[in-house]
Amino acid sequence: MEQLVNDFSPGLFFMQLFIFGVLLLLLSKFAWKPILNSLKAREGSIADALQSAENAKEEMAKLQADNQKLLQEARLERDKLLKEATDIANKIKEEAKSDAAKQADKMISDAKNVIEVEKNAALKEVTTKVAELSLEIAEKLIRKNLSDDKAQKALAEDFMKDLKLN
């Protein structure tokens, strides 16, 4: 440091000051403006990039909201379809139960009709058998009672009395 103080030359100092001033003038004239312009351009491109990023972020938020809305609508549609399918299935079950009940009622009614017809046929057959048996019994009784002449005459007289009264 001491050497610098001892070697000080005012001419060299002014020459260096002059060269520095010229250099400063040249830099301000030719380099300073392009450097500032490039810095401003870079600042503008950074601002544009930040704005684009912000726009992209907003667009992504909108897309996510739209996706959520579509997802919600799809869920509602799915629930609606499931409810309709359940309702249709229940309706089909109820119709099947109703048809089965109608068929069962028809089968029971048909069976009752068949039973009634068979009952009537059985009653007719029993009535016919009873009548046949009654006639056979009556015939046997009449033959037994009318086997002799006295009984035949008494019966004929009874019939005559009934005829005269009528």
Automatic annotation (TrEMBL):
Transmembrane spans: 12-32
GO molecular function: proton-transporting ATP synthase activity, rotational mechanism; proton-transporting ATPase activity, rotational mechanism
Pfam families per the UniProt record, alphabetical: ATP-synt_B
Entry keyword tRNA processing: no
Superkingdom of this protein's organism: Bacteria
Membrane topology: Single-pass membrane protein
Keywords from the UniProt entry: ATP synthesis, Cell inner membrane, Cell membrane, CF(0), Coiled coil, Hydrogen ion transport, Ion transport, Membrane, Transmembrane, Transmembrane helix, Transport
Recorded coiled-coil stretches: 46-91
Subcellular location: Cell inner membrane; Endomembrane system
Main location: membrane
A GO term from the CC aspect: endomembrane system
Classification via InterPro entries: ATP_synth_B-like_membr_sf, ATP_synth_b/b'su_bac/chlpt, ATP_synth_F0_bsu_bac, ATP_synthase_B_chain
Complex and partners: F-type ATPases have 2 components, F(1) - the catalytic core - and F(0) - the membrane proton channel. F(1) has five subunits: alpha(3), beta(3), gamma(1), delta(1), epsilon(1). F(0) has four main subunits: a(1), b(2) and c(10-14). The alpha and beta chains form an alternating ring which encloses part of the gamma chain. F(1) is attached to F(0) by a central stalk formed by the gamma and epsilon chains, while a peripheral stalk is formed by the delta and b chains.
Function of the protein: F(1)F(0) ATP synthase produces ATP from ADP in the presence of a proton or sodium gradient. F-type ATPases consist of two structural domains, F(1) containing the extramembraneous catalytic core and F(0) containing the membrane proton channel, linked together by a central stalk and a peripheral stalk. During catalysis, ATP synthesis in the catalytic domain of F(1) is coupled via a rotary mechanism of the central stalk subunits to proton translocation. Component of the F(0) channel, it forms part of the peripheral stalk, linking F(1) to F(0). The b'-subunit is a diverged and duplicated form of b found in plants and photosynthetic bacteria.
Family membership noted in the UniProt record: Belongs to the ATPase B chain family.
Name this protein carries in UniProt: ATP synthase subunit b
Organism: Marivirga tractuosa (strain ATCC 23168 / DSM 4126 / NBRC 15989 / NCIMB 1408 / VKM B-1430 / H-43)
Gene transcribed to yield this protein: atpF
